[in-house]
Design brief:
Length: 365
C-alpha cells in the first residue's frame, strides 16, 4: 500500500532522520547520556521560541494539552485569577483545564473564527486587577486563525500581567518571539509544525517565573511545573520516567528546523505551501473560512455545495491523502481542514491538488 500523505494538523509527516532516530539503542533516563541529550534539547527549545538567557525550558511527556495543563495547574496561588481570551476549540480546551482546577476566571470569549477585539480585551484587563495571568492560543487550529499575540503581549506589559500562550500548533510554523512579544510562558509539542512525533511536549518560560514557583501551588502531581523545573536544574532530568525514546526524534527535529532548514526557511516553506493550497482550492470553487489572519499551516475550506465532506475524505484517503473534518458545527457545513505541517513540500501540495480536483469532479457527477 502506498504511504499516506498526512495533510492533517498533527500527527505530521516526519523526515527520515527523525524516524530513524527512534532506532537509537536503549538508554536509562538516569544516565549521563540522557542528561546530555536533555540539556541539548532544552537549549534548542529556547532557540525555537526565540528566547534569550532569561528563559529556561522543560520537557513534558504527553501531548500539547499536557504542557498546557502543566502550566495552568501550576501558576496560581490563592486569590489569583486568570483572564482567558478564546475564539475556538483550543481556547475552550484551556477553559476546561481552568474550570477543572477551579481557578478564578475572567472569561473573554469571542465567536469561533472571530478575531479578538483588542478594545474589549484591554477594557477587561484594566477592570480586573485580580488577574495575574492572561492566557490565549497563538494558532487556533480549529479555524486556522492566528491570534493577536504581539498586541496582547503589549497590553499584558502595560497592565502588569503574566502572558501564557498555547503555541501547540504555532511553534516552528510561526515566529513566537517570546521576548519581543512579552510572553512569560509558552507551551508546544513535537508532533505539529516541528515535524517530530506526538507525545513530547515542552514549555519555555522566564526563569524568574520558574524560580518563583512553590511545590504547594502546583495542583497536579505528574504535571507539576515546580517538579519539572527543579529536576531540570538539579539533575538535568525529569521528575518521573519520561518517554525516553521520543527525546531523540524531538532533538533531531529541532536540529532539522533550526540548523538545516533554519526557522526562517521553514516558515517561508510553510507560507509557500499554504499559498499553493489556497490558490488551488479557491480555483476549484471551494470557499475559505478566513480571509485574513490565516496561519502558515492550516487552511479551513468549505467543499462545494452537494459534495458530502465525510464521503470526500474517505475517497481522498483511498488515494493516499488524509485531511481533517471541520470541528464543531463546521463539520455539518461541509468544512474540512487541509494542513501543510511537517514534511510537506510545494510539489506535494500540487500533487494533492490534482487528486483533490479529480475526486471533486467525480463526486459532482
Amino acid at each position: 500500500m502506498a504511504m499516506t500523505k498526512l495533510f492533517s494538523p498533527g500527527p505530521v509527516m516526519v523526515k527520515d532522520n527523525v524516524r530513524h532516530s527512534l532506532l537509537h539503542y536503549d538508554i536509562c533516563h538516569r544516565s549521563k547520556e540522557f542528561e546530555a541529550l536533555f540539556v541539548d534539547t532544552q537549549a534548542k527549545i529556547l532557540r525555537l521560541f526565540e528566547a534569550d538567557d532569561s528563559y529556561d525550558s522543560v520537557i513534558v511527556s504527553g501531548s500539547g494539552t499536557s504542557a498546557n495543563e502543566t502550566i495552568l495547574s501550576s501558576l496560581f496561588r490563592a486569590g489569583d485569577a486568570v483572564m482567558l481570551i478564546r475564539n475556538g476549540m483550543f481556547g475552550e480546551r484551556l477553559l476546561e483545564i481552568i474550570n477543572k482546577y477551579q481557578i478564578p476566571l475572567v472569561d473573554c470569549p469571542f465567536d469561533w473564527a472571530t478575531y479578538p477585539d483588542l478594545g474589549v480585551v484591554e477594557n477587561m484587563m484594566a477592570a480586573h486587577p485580580e488577574v495575574t495571568v492572561v492566557a490565549m492560543v497563538f494558532h487556533e487550529t480549529c479555524t486556522g486563525m492566528i491570534n493577536p499575540v504581539p498586541q496582547v503581549g503589549a497590553l499584558c506589559k502595560k497592565y502588569g500581567k503574566l502572558f501564557s500562550v498555547d503555541c501547540v500548533s504555532a511553534a516552528a510554523g510561526e515566529h513566537i518571539r517570546v521576548v519581543d512579544n512579552n510572553i512569560a510562558i509558552a507551551a508546544s509539542v513535537g508532533g505539529k509544525c516541528l515535524g517530530a512525533f506526538p507525545g513530547s511536549a515542552y514549555i519555555c518560560a522566564r526563569k524568574e517565573l520558574l524560580r518563583s514557583l512553590t511545590a504547594d501551588q502546583c495542583k497536579n502531581v505528574y504535571l507539576s511545573l515546580y517538579k519539572h523545573y527543579q529536576s531540570s536544574i538539579t539533575s538535568h532530568q525529569t521528575p518521573n520516567t519520561p518517554n525516553v525514546n521520543l527525546f531523540w526524534p524531538l532533538n533531531v527535529a529541532l536540529t532539522n528546523a533550526l540548523d538545516d532548514e533554519t526557522l526562517d526557511g521553514r516558515i517561508a516553506r510553510y507560507q509557500r505551501c499554504a499559498a499553493i493550497i489556497r490558490e488551488g482550492l479557491t480555483a476549484m470553487g471551494c470557499r475559505l473560512l478566513l480571509d485574513s489572519h490565516m496561519s502558515n499551516t492550516v487552511t479551513s475550506v468549505f467543499l462545494p455545495a452537494g459534495v458530502d465532506a465525510n464521503t470526500f475524505l474517505k475517497e481522498m484517503e483511498k488515494r493516499g491523502y488524509t485531511f481533517y473534518i471541520g470541528k464543531g458545527d463546521y463539520a455539518k457545513q461541509g468544512m474540512i481542514q487541509v494542513a501543510n505541517m511537517g514534511e510537506i513540500y510545494e510539489q506535494d501540495c500540487r500533487n494533492m491538488l490534482e487528486v483533490f480536483s479529480a475526486v471533486l469532479k467525480q463526486m459532482k457527477q
